[in-house]
Amino acid sequence: MHTNENKPLEGRIAVVAGATRGAGRAIAMKLGEAGATVYVTGRSTRGNPSPMRRPETIEETAELVTARGGLGIYQRVDHTEESQVKALFERIADEQNGRLDLLVNDVWGGESLVQWGTGFWESSLADGLFLQRQAVHSHLITSYYGAPLMVKRKQGLIIEVTDGVGYHYRGNLYYSLAKIGVSHLAQAMAAELKPHGIAAVSVTPGFLRSEEMLEHFGVTEENWQEAGKKDVHFLQSETPYFVGQAIASLAADPNVLDKTGQLLSSWGLSDEYGFVDADGRRPHWGRYAEEQGFNQNQ
To answer: How far apart are alpha carbons 111 and 288 in whole angstroms?
Structure first.
C-alpha cells in the first residue's frame, strides 16, 4: 500500500482511550499529524468535567487532532463501564466499515488514589482496589471490544501505556500492581493475538512534563527548567509529544509485528526511529536512570 511520507497513517483508524490530557492527548495529536482518523475518549466534556475536576476536555483534543492534519472524533466514555465501551466500538464498526488499525489504552485516573509513602496495609484498601478497576480493568474491557475488529481483518496494533520498563517495584504496591498489570496485559494479548497478525506492546514515557506536572511545580512549558531547583530529575523530563511520536512511529512501522510482546520506552524508540522531542531535545530517561542507579529494569 502506497503511503504519503508526510502522512504515513493516512486512512488508518485509531482509538486513544484516555485522551483528555497529558500523554493521551499528545498521542492523539501525533497520530493526527501523521494523517490518522482518531477517536478520542475520556470522561471530561465541555460543561461536564470528570471527578478529577481538570479543565481539559475531549472536544478540545479532537479539535487539536484535526488542526494537526488528521480527523479527530470525540466520544465521552467511562472505560470502566462495559456498555459505554461496547457502544464506542459499535459506532466505529458502523462508521469505518469494521476497520480499526490502532488501539491505545491510556486510561489512568488514579492520581488521587495512591497514598505514597504508606504501607499497603495502612492505605485505603477501597482506593487500592478501585485503582485496579480504573487503570487495569478499563484497559481489559476496552481491548475485549476493540480486538475483534482487528481479528476480523487480521491486522492491527494494541498499545498499553504504562510507567516503567520491566517488573520492578514502583514505590507503592497498588501503583506497581496497576502499571505492571497493563505491561503484562500487553504481553498476554501479544501471545493470543499474534496468530491473527495483530501486535500488542507496552510503551512507557520517561519523566512526563504533563499539564498536571507543570502545575505541580508552578511552571509553564516556557520556563519548565526552573522546576529543576525543586527536583533535579525534572531536568531530564520530556513533553507528552515525545511518547506521542514514539507511538506514531510504531503505528507507521510495517514490521511492528516483530516487536509484539515487548515492553518499550519513548527513549528507546527515539534511539531506533530517530525522532526528537517537541523542544528539539532527546531526553533519555533510561540512560539517566542507569547513571543515577534507579531500579529501572529488573
So the answer is: 25
Alpha-carbon distance 201 to 117, whole Å? 30
- 41 strand-pairing partners: 17, 75
Q: 228: which DSSP letter?
A: G
Torsions phi, psi of 221, nearest 5? -65, -25
216-256 pLDDT, tens digit per residue, is 999 999 999 999 999 999 999 999 999 999 999 999 999 99
Q: Is 175 a catalytic residue?
A: yes
What does the block give as the cell for 237?
A: 523530563
CA distance 167 to 198: 24
Catalytic one among 175, 241, 273, 288? 175
Cα torsion 79, 36, 199, 201: sign: negative
Phi, psi for 228 (deg, rounded to 5): -60, -20
Place of cell 483534543: 61
